[in-house]
Amino acid sequence: MDKRERIRQLLPLIDQIKDEKLRNGVLEVWVKAWEESEWEDVADCPFHVEIQEASLIQHTNFVMTIAMAMASLARDTWHIPVDMDLLLAGAVLHDVCKVLESAPQEGKPGKQSAIGENLVHGAYGVHLALNAGLPLRVAHLINTHTPQVSKLPKVIEGIFICYADYAAADILLLGKGMPLVLDMIDFKFCR
């Protein structure tokens, strides 16, 4: 099976992206990340180098599913327009950079790579998306999905991706007694 088909098998919601050019660009980004990485099989890449229980693929599918559910509920409840193609593209690519931010390590889920040590999380995913000719709006979603950057999402699809990602991450981090994503956010409005 070629890498493109392997990605489609692992991340089946990609096929729900209706715009063929966008869908192909998303697949291209995943394949390029995998080819540049040290991972023999992208399915072996961990969500987090200290968490063995979850792969990046599981995390990405979880985030995509939660983001789609929130978007559908908001659309149905409040009639909020949602670009589902944009939402899916951003959700499936939000952590593609982790394929390059980590590397295999015997006996552990992985280790941080030179890219992971030297670039802010998400930066390489933005680079890959723009180089693949994806719209700036998709790169914006990748860039703003993490509290490690100072930019906030400017579109509703980014809100769904952020909260889906924070929930998916914090569920696993809490179980390990690790700092939560929520610990990185300054909730000024709660004071």
Main sheet overview: 2 strands, antiparallel
| Average pLDDT over all residues | 94
The CATH C-level class name = Mainly Alpha
**Could you spell the SSE succession in H and E letters?**
HHEEHHHEEHHHH
Give, in spatial order, the strands making up the sheet with the most strands.
1-2
Q: Which structural category fits the helices and strands?
A: mainly alpha
Number of helices: 9
State the distance separating the first and last CA atoms.
53 Å
Uncertain runs are none
Rg, nearest Å: 16 Å
Shape field: globular
Going by CATH, the architecture would be Orthogonal Bundle
Q: What is the number of beta strands?
A: 4
Q: DSSP strand (E) fraction?
A: 5-15%
Task: Supply the number of structural domains.
Answer: 1
CATH structural fold name: Hypothetical protein af1432
Report on the structure:
There is one protein chain. The protein has 191 residues and is mainly alpha-helical. The chain has a single domain, classed as Hypothetical protein af1432. It is 54% helix and 9% strand. The protein has nine helices and four strands; from the N terminus they run ααββαααββαααα. The protein has helices spanning 3-10, 20-36, 56-78, 84-93, 98-101, 114-118, 123-131, 136-143, 156-175; strands spanning 46-48, 51-55, 102-105, 108-112. The strands form two sheets. It has a two-stranded antiparallel ribbon. A two-stranded antiparallel sheet has the order 3-4. It is globular, with a radius of gyration of 16 Å. The relative contact order is 0.15.
